[in-house]
Design goal:
alpha/beta; DJ-1/PfpI; INH-QAR; 7 helices; DJ-1/PfpI domain-containing protein; Class_I_gatase-like; Rossmann fold; eight-stranded mixed beta sheet
C-alpha cells in the first residue's frame, strides 16, 4: 500500500497473459467501486465519513501483449492492456493484489514461462494477495503456487485439477472459495 496525499492507495494488477473469461475478469469492478474516487462520484449517496475512509484504488491490466493492445476475452470482447508484465510499475513489491481471472483451461503454461515466473514472483511476497477466479487456478498451479495448500477451482474440473497438480487439498466440491496464506482461490461460475 502506498500513500498519495496521505490517502492509502491499493494497487491491483489484473493478470491476463493470453485471454480470459469476460465474467471472471469483471470482478475487478468490486475494487474500483470501493474506492474513494468512486465514492466521490456518488456524492451524497455515500456518507462522507465512509467515503473519507476509503482508499484510492489504482488498477493495472497486465499481459504479455504490449500496452494499448487488445487482450482477448470471451464473447468477442477485448480489454486494453495497460502494462506489459516486464514494466517496472508492476514488478514484485509494486502491487498489493494480483487478480488472476480464468483463462482457457487447456492452455499449456509451460510454453509461457514469462507468465508463470511473473506470477510466482508476486506470490512469493506474503504482503501480495493472489486472487484466483475459476480457471485462473490452472495458471496458479502452473506457476507453482498450489502445492501444500487448500485450493478451490471449478467444481466440474476438480478431477482434472487433481491430476495436473499434486499435493493440493482440493475443496471445490464443498466450498465456493478458500484462502490459504496469500492465495485466495474461487469457483466464480458455480451456482449452489
Amino acid at each position: 500500500m502506498t500513500a498519495t496525499d496521505s490517502r492509502p492507495t491499493i494497487r491491483v494488477g489484473v493478470f491476463i497473459p493470453k485471454e480470459c473469461q469476460l465474467l471472471d475478469m469483471a470482478c475487478v469492478d468490486v475494487f474500483g467501486t470501493m474506492s474513494h474516487e468512486y465514492f466521490t462520484i456518488l456524492g451524497d449517496g455515500v456518507p462522507s465519513p465512509i467515503a473519507n475512509l476509503a482508499p484510492s484504488v489504482k488498477i493495472f491490466y497486465i499481459s504479455t501483449v504490449q500496452p494499448n493492445n487488445p487482450i482477448p476475452m470471451t464473447s468477442a470482447a477485448h480489454l486494453c492492456c495497460t502494462h506489459h508484465l516486464s514494466d517496472p510499475a508492476v514488478q514484485p513489491g509494486k502491487l498489493d493484489v494480483v487478480l488472476v481471472p480464468g483463462p482457457d483451461p487447456a492452455t499449456d503454461w509451460t510454453k509461457h514461462p514469462e507468465a508463470t515466473d511473473w506470477l510466482a514472483a508476486h506470490a512469493a511476497r506474503a504482503e501480495t494477495d493472489i486472487l484466483s477466479v475459476c480457471t485462473g487456478i490452472y495458471l496458479c498451479g502452473a506457476a507453482g503456487l498450489l502445492r501444500g495448500r487448500k485450493a478451490c477451482g471449478p467444481r466440474n474440473l476438480q478431477g482434472d485439477l487433481a491430476k495436473k497438480f499434486e499435493g493440493v487439498q482440493w475443496v471445490g466440491e464443498e466450498m465456493r472459495w478458500v484462502k490459504d496464506g496469500n492465495l485466495w482461490s474461487s469457483d466464480f461460475g458455480r451456482l449452489r
